[in-house]
Amino acid sequence: MSFDPFGSTATIVVFGASGDLAKKKTFPALFGLFREGHLSSDVKIIGYARSHLEEDDFKKRISANFKGGNPETVEQFLKLTSYISGPYDTDEGYQTLLKSIEDYEAANNVSTPERLFYLALPPSVFTTVASQLKKNVYSETGKTRIIVEKPFGHDLESSRQLQKDLSPLFTEEELYRIDHYLGKEMVKNLLVLRFGNELFNGVWNKNHIKSIQISFKEAFGTDGRGGYFDSIGIVRDVMQNHLLQVLTLLTMDRPVSFDPEAVRDEKVKILKAFDALDPEDILLGQYGKSEDGSKPGYLDDSTVPKDSKCVTYAALGIKIHNERWEGVPIVMRAGKALDESKVEIRIQFKPVARGMFKEIQRNELVIRVQPNESIYLKINSKIPGISTETSLTDLDLTYSTRYSKDFWIPEAYEALIRDCYLGNHSNFVRDDELDVSWKLFTPLLQYIESDKSPQPEVYAYGSKGPKGLREFLNKHDYIFADEGTYQWPLTTPKVKGKI
To answer: Active-site residues: which are they?
Structure first.
């Protein structure tokens, strides 16, 4: 149990409480914090939505996705929750909400209100709800924090309009733009891994690193949600936000401290050093049927236009022009309906001087974000015994084997909700960072979604992606280790595994 639970005599209101995001992510995250002792038993949690739900139905709905804990813990948490049904665009529901909050604060002798509003809502109602909150429920004498879910706009223009609408209502200090990838354990570990180890800090530059790639793979397709995905595409869905956030942490210079603004200053600085994304330096794909015909192609989805050119796979070449990264090729790639679900970072180092070695593999640092979080470093080692041959093996930190099963690693939403309540902006997106990222990606998105863009290459559902991927990665100086050179610990050195 934690000795620093937050939320004592605080109110947390989840808007969109009847929706999937709240049911699958927000409320389970709040329960996870409560289960681990990071959320006070005195907190007040209110779900607000337009749907008419009975209190018992609401509690059954949100508790269906809770993980861990015993029935008593679940019951204790549910006693903290209540539900209010009301419109988003008129005062009446917010007045009911205000009364519920004020009754709770009066009963607990709260002199300085603390109110956290989580908008698990589509962007189309962000401004409406934010305006009503400021008008009806904002605390002039206490602390108000508001969490806004992505997407933060559709392009640069819509993002700026959203900022223009929200900025008169809430200060940047009060706004928390949540990108859940910044709450993932391995992403949060990047700063410590890089700057807390001289071993890595000293070689984290163009003098030692040959190439970088960040990959995001999903083993499932759009599954009937193609109509929604068709207007978004894979670049807007995960690359402009999730993967770009990872890349900024991976490439930025060392902040002066862990102060949130110091970290975010460095992220903005590195983004400004990115070269414009080159439409000639991309690989685009769209998944078709699986090779055995058992899985449908993207265009087989009844909600998708039959002539859709929507991109379900993309690999982008990225260049950074500064002293640290000039000339280092970087690739971000992401796709749906692939052979596995996995997110990882691969940093490949330059080869050693030849001389005594005729053939030897490059060192490679691999950071697996999900699933089964791990960090492993591929190194060259002599094969045990009388042989003088070398083999590529690894130094392996896999969390599931290194840490005991009862060691709690918070899920992304758990970590970020806690950060928000404690006023830690480090893992949230700042307004100027958002603006620079949309400036970078909007021209590319306009090209991809125009008639000038080529037809995406069709790849089979369940495959590794477009057939041109290996050539694309080779062009960006990523070298695949020769088969038979990568070896896990074995009883005999004669049998070699594959990378």
So the answer is: 242
